[in-house]
Design brief:
There is one protein chain. By secondary structure, the chain is α+β, with helices and mostly antiparallel strands. The protein has a single domain, classed as Small Protein B, Chain: A (Beta Barrel). Helix content is 32%, strand content 36%. It is built from four helices and nine strands; from the N terminus they run βαβαβββββαββα. It has a seven-stranded antiparallel beta sheet. The protein has a two-stranded antiparallel sheet with strand order 3-6. Strand 4 and strand 5 form a beta hairpin. It is globular and about 60 Å long.
Length: 155
């Protein structure tokens, strides 16, 4: 993953951590048009319901909504267009091997800038069942409770 000090998160997909077990993460470049970069810098992005698939040794991002640039002209981009992700061939082969296993999918977790270039953090994810989601919520609540008690004792 990219260095925390250098990346500037533009959009995160918080629901992905609620709906999926994230097994592995991978950083990928993204092919964008001119006004899409400007829209990203303004934060006009929605990653809900977006996913990535592998077609013919290439990875594509679907349903990522990058809003229309408000100061654009007639050459503005289409918000829901399919975008190509840039990965090394070896990384794509590894993804194909892991995705052939049952139930794995590629989910974009966050879009950010590293040294002026837009990057997407994609996660190899497996879907959660409803009881898994309840267990995750219980764990988070118990962790918060423990942190609260520790904080009170330190006062």
């Amino acid at each position: 993953m990219a260095d925390k000090k250098q990346d500037t998160a533009v959009a995160t997909n918080r629901k992905a951590y609620h709906d999926y077990f994230i097994e592995e993460t991978l950083e990928a470049g993204i092919v964008l048009q001119g006004t899409e970069v400007k829209s990203l810098r303004l934060g006009l992005v929605n990653l809900m319901d977006s996913y990535a698939i592998v077609k013919k040794d290439e990875v594509f991002l679907f349903n990522a909504n990058i809003g229309v640039y408000p100061f654009g002209n007639i050459m503005n981009h289409e918000p829901l267009r399919t975008r190509k992700l840039l990965l090394h061939a070896e990384e794509i082969r590894k993804l194909i091997g892991k995705m052939t296993q049952k139930g794995f999918t590629l989910i974009p977790l966050k879009i950010y800038f590293v040294r002026g270039k837009a990057k997407v953090l994609i996660g190899l994810a497996k879907g959660k069942k409803s009881f898994d989601k309840r267990d995750t919520i219980k764990e988070k609540e118990s962790k918060r409770e423990v942190e609260r008690v520790v904080k009170e004792r330190n006062r």
